[in-house]
Amino acid sequence: MVAGVAGGKRPGPAGLQQTPALARPSALTGAAAGVTGPGGVRISKLLAERGLCSRRDADEYIARGWVFVDGRRISELGTRADPGAAITLDRQAQAKQQSRLTILLHKPVGYVSGQPEPGCTPAASLIRADTQVRTPDTPAFHPSCLHGLAPAGRLDIDSTGLLILTQDGRVARQLIGEDSMIDKEYLVRVVGHLDDKGLALLRHGLSLDDRKLKRARVEWLNDDQLRFVLLEGRKRQIRRMCELVGLRVTGLKRVRIGAVRLADLPLGQWRFLRPGETF
Questions:
Q1: Is 276 helix (H, G, I), strand (E, B) or coil?
Q2: What is the C-alpha separation between 4 and 270, in angstroms, rounded?
Q3: Does the pLDDT value for residue 165 go beyond 90?
Q4: What are the φ/ψ torsions at residue 175 (nearest 5 degrees)?
């Protein structure tokens, strides 16, 4: 799992180990090995697939010579390697990644999580000094916190709850990548009648936009509130699921993403992901 760095002491270069050269032959193919054929996989793709960094960061790290394949430093973009090759990052790349911030926001109704349409206010506008929840060991807000900050997942304008914004491509991939297995928990108030057959359909059997939905956990909490746990985040998914079984959603709140909970974070306020806190 990937933990965001929220503040406190960060390991310096002396605390990070640079990869030593390995004795066994290199698994490189492509330009670095003088092979121009299609063999092997681009190292940038392997780095992203293994969660070591984002594809964008991979290209930067390769260009800077911060990537090692089987102990050999790589600096040429487009270099390919065997899928089973040992790939590691230089300590400078590790230090740069550890400086990337991840933020937890309790989004109110009326804010959009992504790019705003005309007349809409982005949730990122709430990331300010006066809305930060701090403890003595966390840093204060600085405008640099907003640089490259992007939502990792959607939460529609009519919904409230936990929204993650991050500068770290690894965190974004972990939460919203095609192979993500991070579940999300929602509390949903509804009106309408739901029988056992409808409840079974909510759990498995519905489709949206001609695509079958993944299996979900759905249960009643009380007479008008359901608990949903999903492994995907299609546009307005829960509201549309409920409509298909004759329910209307009157309130929706996301309370957990993976192992990270909204807990007592006040509405409209935010905090950094803490050191050691993982999804």
A1: coil
A2: 14
A3: yes
A4: -90, -35
Between CA 231 and CA 181 the distance in angstroms is 6
Q: For residue 190, what is the DSSP state?
A: E
Distance in angstroms (rounded) separating the CA atoms of residues 152 and 167: 10
Could you give the count of Cα atoms lying within 13 Å of 46 in the half-sphere of its Cβ? 21
Q: Give percent above pLDDT 70 in the chain.
A: 84
- Quick count: other Cβ atoms within 10 Å of Cβ 208? 15
Tens of pLDDT, residues 92-137? 777 666 667 899 999 999 999 987 778 889 999 999 999 999 988 7
Q: Which of 84, 85, 76, 94 is nearest to 18 (CA)?
A: 94
Q: Is-catalytic flag, 156?
A: yes
Q: Cα torsion at 270, 272, 277, 279 (round to 10°)?
A: 60
Collapsing DSSP states into helix, strand and coil, what is residue 56? helix
Q: What is the pLDDT of residue 38?
A: 56
Q: What is the mean pLDDT of the chain?
A: 84
Residue 44: φ, ψ to 5°: -60, -35
- Beta bridge partners, 66, equal none
> Which is it for strands 67-69 and 72-74: parallel, antiparallel or unpaired?
antiparallel
Task: Give the E-state strand segments of 119-197 in sequence order.
Answer: 121-122, 150-151, 160-166, 184-191
Smallest CA-to-CA distance from 2 within 253, 118, 127, 176 is with 176
Q: What is the pLDDT of residues 23-65, one digit of tens each?
A: 344 455 544 443 233 568 989 888 878 777 777 778 888 988 8
- Identified catalytic residue from 59, 156, 183, 196: 156
Closest CA to 90 of 57, 54, 70, 61: 61
First to last CA, the chain: 7
